Amino acid sequence: MAQSGKGRLNYRCPSCFMRDLDIDLFYDKEKKEYYCLRCQYTGTEEDVLKKNEMARFRYRSMGERITEFEE
Prior knowledge:
The chain is α+β, with helices and mostly antiparallel strands.
């Protein structure tokens, strides 16, 4: 794995991030895709951004305290 290098930005692995693990993806210049060393996830930059946006949607209210509930 010595040939691998970090991508332009430090993207998080969407698969690991859904399991509350903060793992950076590596970028393969030959295949033009990102990959995770921990869970074997691979995907293009568009795929990574789309899945990370889905994680942001799921956890958007995590930092807010909810005190009122609708019935």
